[in-house]
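Lab notes, practical 5.
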Amino acid sequence: MWNRCVRRRQRIPIEVALHVAREVARVLAYVHGYGDLKLVHRDIAPPNILLGYNGDVKLTDFGLARSALKEEKTQPGVVFGRAAYLAPEQARGEVADGRTDVYTLAVVLWELLTGHQYLPISGLDPSAGLALVRHPKPTPPSTRAPWIVPELDKVVMRALAPDRAQRYQSAEEFRLALSDVISQTAPRTDPARVVELMHTIFEESIDKERAEREHLLKEVIPAFRASSPTPPAPDDADGRVTLPLESLASAERSGRTSTPSGQAPGQARPRRNTGGHAHEAKGKAGNGAQLPGVTPSPATADGRRARREAAMRVLAELAAEDAEPTPAPVQARK
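Output from the prediction step:
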């Protein structure tokens, strides 16, 4: 969003900036208070805050998060995080806590409100940039954005206090302070305002994604289905396929009238195998007849297919027996 607004020379509305900051503070309040883990994100920065076209705000990338389960021993001189979004205590190598995330979120809010980088350290050498991060000199956002009201200046400056004891002591306290300012100065702050901005600056991307989605649904998927062999549709939630018993019985009867290969006329037929084992010819009924809708499987087919085919053969035999005419009962002589 930031880069897109810069390219379009469009200022981020104050309602959007406040909504994003308040929602991230809400997430941090949940994360910091989750169980006894003492989670700290330690990498609050624009790349880790995602906005959806529907106005959703999501905080991602907890790769640098610190918790009671991850008490690493930092080597002297090693600092985790992005230099421009480090709290002073992080730059000094001190242990981060929830107030560290409050500070870095305030940096993001300051930049969203003003459209400028809070600590311009990109042109400095690493030592000079780190010294600036360790000893920052906060400036009110109204110095760069005159439309910022004093009430909002006060909230942001407290969150940016170099001494964490002077900041908001929790993300929830910061969220409540933002909510008070929003109710007084920006009552239109809500997800709908974010949706309006996202659809304005990403209009081309949204149209392109919509066209690609329609092309996939209306052309690609139907063409793929048409070119693929259509398997029997599953009849229940388990994905099992049931073939009509009439067709199975017909295949069984036709098989009975034919003489199996290699068997002389009048020769006794081999006993049926109804024990659930696969016959020599896959996809055939118990007497060698091909079952409708069953494709012969190669010898390397897995056991599940063999068991399924064996079960269908048993059903065919049972259906054929049911279809045979029942002889009339013989009446007893009086």
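Observations recorded by the TA: DSSP finds eleven helices and two strands in the chain. Confidence is low (pLDDT under 50) at residues 73-77, 257-289.
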